[in-house]
Amino acid sequence: MIRTLFYVLGGVLLGGIIHIAIILLLPDFANRDAWTSLGRFGPDGAFHRLPMSEPGTEPLPYLDPQMAYAACRFSLDDGPIRIKAAMPEDFWSIAVFNRRGSNVYSLNDRSAERADIDLVIATPVQMAQLRENPIAALDQSIVIEVPVTRGFALIRSFVADPTLVGRAEALLGAADCSAELPSADAPPAVDPGDEKR
Amino acid sequence: MRLLINIAIAIAVALIVGFGSAALVLDRERLFGAVTRGAWTAWPDTGSPDADPYTEAMLARTGEVPLGAGEGLAFSADADSAGARLRGECTYRVTGQTPPARLWTLTVYDADGHLMDNPANRTAFHSREVLRHEDGSFTVAVSRSAQPGNWLPVTTPDAIRLILRLYDTPLAGGSRIGAVVMPAIEKVGCP
């Protein structure tokens, strides 16, 4: 009898380990999480406009119906990425999430102190390379370092009334998630024969 | 034989305790970091890299995308100011002021987190369109029947949830949420 009790106790301890494992692993294996849901809207590496949140057609749960959204799933395996988007005058914000759906960075139009988005996302290693080899063309960009290799960026743009939906959607549709990033590997003007365009 | 039975018991206990407790925890409201002001609750850490593993797991299960700390802060209410569960069959008045924010929106959802289709074509109010009293405060009526002034229609008789999103607010991002005053949710009446 006492021996069975020990086994039950062992089972409870093992149950605790299972509990922790489930909680920690769930974000990587969930099939209804934001990362997976956003994959429905198109291929990775480009922004896709989400349909406006209306009854019955919410692209993701609990999105604000007063906002227009565009999302881009990205990978930093092939180097840093650069996000460029012209934005409306009104409130907008951009947030960067990791593969597990946790927010790693966010910014709104006022804290950006500019009317458009020009954001370079790099891993810590890529960031170190960028610091060593600064790219002049990125002077105006906001360069952020995120501890992720895969993730997604989500732009929110406030739509004050339905007549403005068209404009917000046009701007979000033109958002670029793989804007040209001058190569950091090739220092500029090394080859004198290289023609400048 | 005895050993096999004991091992089977241990494994059964482990599975029940492990999966059961995980499901129990994830089906409830988020455990950690809740900030409650009046009828409203926010989870400021949800939108930061410091989100706890339970929050991460819960977000992964629902597919929600939280507001980042640099974007704003969302307060949700499932009960009125008196503590009674919000129900669509009742009429409520959301009245008062919001904490400082450049922009806010008030949205109503049904129990499953969906917006409700209604003839008035309205699922939310934002701070610039809401009609205000002379002192700058506002009253939004949440009801199944048409109301004068700001009417936020619901169509379900069952549980509803209100979400007040504050955009670009000093409350989000690091600074502690002090004694902010949230709008009151008063029950006007139930059938």
TrEMBL record, chain A:
<dbReference type="InterPro" id="IPR014456">
    <property type="entry name" value="UCP010244_IM"/>
</dbReference>
<keyword id="KW-0812">Transmembrane</keyword>
<feature type="transmembrane region" description="Helical">
    <location>
        <begin position="6"/>
        <end position="26"/>
    </location>
</feature>
<dbReference type="InterPro" id="IPR010679">
    <property type="entry name" value="DUF1254"/>
</dbReference>
<dbReference type="Pfam" id="PF06863">
    <property type="entry name" value="DUF1254"/>
</dbReference>
<protein>
    <submittedName>
        <fullName>Membrane protein</fullName>
    </submittedName>
</protein>
<keyword id="KW-0472">Membrane</keyword>
<feature type="domain" description="DUF1254">
    <location>
        <begin position="66"/>
        <end position="169"/>
    </location>
</feature>
<keyword id="KW-1133">Transmembrane helix</keyword>
